[in-house]
């Protein structure tokens, strides 16, 4: 099961586009922009973070992705999502892909974010690219549903 979770995470992260973020360096006079392999969506003004999270959990079930875990802290909520059958195929191909599984989607500061897996997916054989891409597409749909509070 852990193998499957890891595969799903890898798939979701690979099809996202990079987002430029600014590193806050306490004590520094300036912040330098840096590229992160992250895809991010803003949560609509009329949607609370809690509603966004509920919408994403609902959408994950609708799209047949398993919500493996939900981690909450004061400032961030993280969802772990998995497509077990696809994760298993990917991990059998390359066990090192386990570092990407399960797919993680975080909600912090009114943003919904996940890793950009496009570089990893491009290195897979075509049949596995298609499988991984299908998971990434579903993660994108889940993030979108959260951003607009769509149940």
Describe this structure in words.
The chain is of the alpha+beta class. The protein has one domain (2-23, 30-148): TATA-Binding Protein (2-Layer Sandwich). The chain has helices at 2-14, 49-62, 84-93, 118-122, 126-148; strands at residues 19-22, 33-36, 38-42, 66-72, 76-82, 103-108, 111-115. β6 (103-108) and β7 (111-115) form a beta hairpin. α1 packs across α5. The chain is globular and about 40 Å long. Residues 1-31 have low confidence and may be disordered.
The CATH C-level name is Alpha Beta
CATH topology: TATA-Binding Protein
Cross-sheet strand order for the largest sheet: 3-7-6-5-4
What is the CATH superfamily label? TT1751-like domain
Number of strands: 7
Can you count the helices?
5
Average pLDDT: 83
Determine Rg (CA atoms, Å).
15 Å
Note poorly predicted spans.
Answer: 1-31
From the spread of the alpha carbons, the general shape counts as globular
CATH architecture field: 2-Layer Sandwich
Structural class per helix/strand content?
Answer: alpha+beta
| DSSP strand content | 25-35%
Order of helices and strands: HEEEHEEHEEHH
Percent of residues in helices: 40-55%
Number of domains: 1
Largest sheet, described in full?
5 strands, antiparallel
End-to-end CA span: 28 Å
